[in-house]
Design brief:
Length: 255
Amino acid sequence: MDIIFFVLFAIFGIVFFSLIIFLGLNATKIKGWLGEKTISIRLEKLDISKYVILNDIFIKNEKGTTSQIDHLVVSVYGIFVIETKNYKGWIFGNEKAENWSQIIYKQKNFFRNPVKQNWSHVYALKSLLKDYKDIRYIPVVVFAGSAVLKQIVSNVPVIYDYEIKNFIQEYPVERCISFEDVKQIVSILENANIKDKEIRKKHVNNIHKTVIERQLKMENLICPRCNSELKLRNGRNGKFYGCSNYPRCRFTMSY
Ligand SMILES: [Zn+2]
């Protein structure tokens, strides 16, 4: 009798914890999806005779790595490459750091530097569109949700979701390509876009695994790049964590 009880208890425990992990993982997914929806609704208000909007573009690079780009706005002024984040709380970040931080309910969480993430998308696009040398790429990071951008040090614009439409419309640059080019680029991007759900899933799962691993290491002040200890240091822009293996490893994260 005792054994049956124990087995039932163990099964219950396993089911319970898997459920929590499952819901936890999906909460970030749902949040991400909501953020992307908010931005695409705002982008739809742009003049469609001038701006072509592409949402959720998934492309493979020459090296075989994949990039998932939240939104692209292709125009005669260039390609706006938009990375979306849906967060609450206070956001702190430096474009050079590996990670940015969110402070919410007195708790600090880290997430991958979205500016760096967006640069990797720009490089992927550049290699895909290498025949178009005159294109201007305009990376921008957009925060949806109730996040407050507390201290952001970045040359790449980091803005709120309600600012995105004006940001694009009023971006002060000259034309760099013709509308004929715009149409061709859009069709190249649409053809390169991988819609296969299995390939996409694999990409997302890989990212989840590494994100969770990195998160755990950073929370325990271990460098996710070389596994050395992270130490608190004083920099020009205040305190930050740096790898104790510096200068061999240049990993940093915000304090
Ligand atoms: Zn390191």
